[in-house]
Amino acid sequence: MFKRPAFVNQFRQSVFNKLLKNKHKTNEIELQHKTIYVLPSKLGGQFLLIALLNFVMGINYQNNLILAMAYLMVVVLVFAILTGYKNVRGLSVKYQSVNESYAPKAPFARFQIHARSYCELIKLVNHNLESETVSLQNKEKKTVEIALKCSERGAYGFDRIKIISHFPFGLVSVWSYIEPTETVYVYPQPIALEKLDTQLHDNEEHDGDNAQVKAGNDDFYQLTPFVQGTALNKVSWKHFAKTQQLLTKEFTSDTSQELALNFNMLSGNNEHRLSQLCFLVNQLTDQHMAFSLTLPNKHIAKGQGINHQTTCLQALAEF
Question: Which of 7, 153, 237, 319 fits 103 for a cystine, CB–CB 3.0-4.6 Å?
């Protein structure tokens, strides 16, 4: 199979960037005259070639029937161009969100398509990835998902998403673009730790993030779900005997200590450490525990909750 040289694709991409400029770099776009592009599709090109051959044969043999067929084919192609343009004009596409994704799983982006009038056979295309094809009634809204080409940990900008239709007859390609301004995060793959206690550190005990949390033995505070690696002497065996559920006893001195996650206190290569930290961030968030996160290039202060979890995971993805 023939493959274009790399410089051809680079030249094509640079021309596209100059022609399109930044008019498609938005989270919501309404398809109008300046943002709609129409060309014959591959099938339409073949159709036009046959029309041209018919025209040449009709001229050569002076056959009016063949000439009439050539003219009719051109009229059909022009009709397809006008109908395809009318089909998408006024269509509104709005970026909604990207699902939470952990490497090596690629994320999905959600877009809402809103048709001002009846609209046929619309789909989104991202390189060789396509969404489902949808048709919309008058004033109807539909949500469409499309996979993104980023499966490794990191922070990515959006690719230019193509909005395309081959209606009618498949003879024309009518398309536009949308390029959301949001950043796409692919978080590290969570890897569980064998000993969770050794990765949690108390800032107050040794004046920094490198101190290990010591078990408190003051007044009883509360019961929390068991976390893998917790010392067995902190398990409430009475509750386990009654409910078969592992719960951990917390004391007042435990709650006064700050849990701090530190990149430098973990072992392994960078990706393995980030994966361990990702696991810890999710575990501590699920346990409703406050913690801080220290990376070589960033420090995130103590916090808890979904917003704090998102901030920490994004920092891990950007590292």
Answer: 153
Gap between the Cα atoms of 283 and 274, Å rounded? 14
Nearest residue to 40 via CA among 13, 74, 10, 86: 74
Whether 211 has a pLDDT exceeding 50, the answer reads no
Q: Give the helix ranges, DSSP H, for 119-261.
A: 203-206, 237-243, 252-255
Task: Please give the Cα distance from 146 to 161 (Å, whole number).
Answer: 9
Vertex 139: Cα angle to 134 and 143 (nearest 5) = 40
For residue 128, the model assigns a pLDDT of 87
Q: Is 94 helix (H, G, I), strand (E, B) or coil?
A: strand
pLDDT of residue 230: 62
Cα first-last separation, the chain: 39
The one-letter code for the residue type at 267 is S
Give me the helices (H) in the chain, please.
6-20, 42-61, 64-88, 203-206, 237-243, 252-255, 270-286, 306-318
3-state secondary structure of 16: helix
Residue 21 vs residue 278, higher pLDDT? 278
Place of tokens 């990207």: 98
- Rounded Cα gap, residues 293 and 235, in angstroms: 26
Q: Domain ranges for the chain, please list them.
A: 23-186, 197-318
DSSP string across 240-269: HHHHS--EEEEEHHHHTSPEEEEGGGS-S-
Our measurement of the distance from residue 25's CA atom to the centroid of its chain's CA atoms, rounded to an integer in Å, reads 16
Residue type, position 311, single letter: T
**Which residues share a beta bridge with 274?**
none
Q: What own/partner pairs with CB < 8 Å and gap ≥ 24 does 42-48 have?
A: 43/170, 43/171, 44/77, 44/80, 44/170, 44/171, 44/172, 44/173, 47/73, 47/76, 47/77, 47/171, 48/73, 48/74, 48/77
Mean pLDDT for 236-261 is 65
